[in-house]
Design goal:
Elements lengths: L1 E7 L8 E4 L10 E3 L4 E3 L2 E5 L6 H21 L19 E9 L2 E9 L4 E8 L6 E7 L2 E4 L9 H4 L6 H5 L5 H11 L2 E3 L14 H7 L13 H21 L4 E10 L13 E11 L2 E6 L5 H19 L2 E4 L8 H12 L9 E5 L14 E6 L5 E5 L5 H6 L3 H6 L12 H6 L4
């Protein structure tokens, strides 16, 4: 589970800001971690005005996940980091700190990186409660924990524009491999896209759930029949989640067509064209409707199914930008409820999302709510609701009313007289 994430000098974020999943209040939805002496939250919601930097917190974490996954093969000419654009800090390194709990052990990953080189990188863990180095990299110098000699080959592959952790994924070392896998398995979803290819619109995790007999991302020792039963069970659960939205959809069909080959392109690898049809039940009949013809809300809900169910199955982290985009408030509340519930979320999956849906504040506790806003210099300020006038927040019976009244900040300023006069409102 994610413990905390800190970022500095990235997009609209200038000074260090931190997102912590450590619970402030004890209650049934938190996940207790006795070996660390804390409880972790399954949900965090980020509120704030448009262009306040809400999405940049998710993008920073997404950037780090992609860096661990792709730096070795994608960072050739430069490093695609986006520092704060204004002032002297623009030429400085961007910094990231990520802490995760894996099988009861706390891991801490640190990274300082600029456009041309990785300045510092380190991974620590706390197997007995005390900090212990797994590796530390200062420039091109790499030191390893004693007993990890199998990772010594990392030195020969290390360059100024590659992460040591990315290289270590190639070696069969449980400590670095387990941590890297937990980082890479985080999933990020944004606004629904309207593109011409299904693979650009629907997450592969959703597609695999509805394709016949396909869900083999985890090894099984069961015979083939049992694997098919597992796949069918997961498909049935996906259909149930689809029906939960009350969209009138009873089933899903996916048609696959191989591209035609002509003489001029005979050496090319054939690609597959997939068409998705949602079967609507009306007057006792099933009527297929092309996914591209569905409403934005239906598309959004369908896109969420795979990533959400996969996270609940594996205990991973899902990052969703604008969870409420095109969805009814009742549906966004149901997604949050899936992660908060002990029964629906037995493996400690986490949902971190941005939203403008103030109705959700009635389903969230003060330590699950974070506020973003920009200062006069255009930099993002970020903090938890639990740190804002703690006593008042604790006594508030209605977080939604308190937020909308401006008590906590994080609202757009729509009261400027000169603007209102120009629009004829004053």
């Amino acid at each position: 589970m994610l413990i905390r994430f800190e970022v500095e000098n990235f997009r609209s974020i200038r000074e260090p800001v931190e997102l912590s999943m450590v619970a402030v209040d004890d209650r049934g939805t938190v996940r207790e971690k006795p070996t660390m002496g804390v409880s972790l939250l399954p949900v965090a919601a980020i509120y704030g005005p448009n262009a306040s930097g809400k999405s940049n917190m998710l993008r920073a974490l997404q950037w780090l996940c992609h860096a661990v996954h792709n730096s070795l093969r994608a960072w050739e000419d430069d490093i695609p980091v986006e520092p704060f654009a204004f002032g002297a800090i623009a030429g400085s390194d961007s910094s990231f700190a990520l802490e995760m709990e894996i099988d009861g052990v706390r891991f801490e990953y640190l990274l300082d990186v600029g456009r041309q080189k990785v300045t510092y990188e380190a991974l620590y863990h706390y197997p007995t409660g005390r900090r212990r180095k797994i590796f530390e990299r200062d420039g091109h110098e790499l030191s390893l924990q004693r007993g990890l000699g199998e990772l010594s080959g990392t030195r020969a592959m290390l360059t100024e524009r590659s992460l040591a952790l990315s290289i270590m994924r190639r070696f069969n070392e449980p400590l670095t491999g387990t941590f890297a896998a937990a980082v890479i398995n985080m999933v990020t979803l944004g606004r629904p896209l309207r593109a011409s290819r299904m693979r650009d619109i629907i997450p592969w995790t959703t597609m695999r759930l509805f394709e016949a007999g396909v869900y083999d991302d985890q090894p099984h020792l069961d015979p083939e029949y049992e694997q098919q039963s597992i796949a069918q069970m997961r498909r049935d659960r996906a259909i149930s989640l689809l029906r939960l939205a009350d969209l009138g959809i009873a089933d899903v069909e996916i048609e696959t067509e191989q591209s035609p080959q002509d003489d001029l392109a005979s050496t090319r690898t054939p690609w597959l064209r997939k068409s998705v049809y949602l079967l609507h039940e009306a007057d006792g009949q099933m009527m297929p409707l092309d996914f591209m013809e569905e409403s934005a809300g239906t598309q959004t809900w369908f896109q969420l199914i795979g990533p959400v169910l996969r996270a609940l199955d594996t205990g991973s982290v899902v990052l969703i930008d604008e969870l409420d985009a095109s969805l009814h408030p009742i549906l966004t509340a149901k997604v949050v409820e899936l992660f908060q519930g002990q029964g629906s979320n037995p493996h400690g999956a986490q949902l971190i999302f941005t939203t403008h849906d103030t109705n959700l504040l009635n389903d969230l506790k003060r330590d699950e709510v974070w506020l973003a806003q920009k200062d006069a210099s255009g930099a993002t300020k970020f903090g938890p609701l639990s740190d804002f006038a703690g006593g008042l927040v604790r006594q508030s019976r209605n977080l939604e009313n308190s937020y909308l009244s401006g008590r906590f900040g994080g609202l757009p300023d729509v009261s400027r007289p000169e603007v209102l006069r120009a629009l004829g409102i004053l």
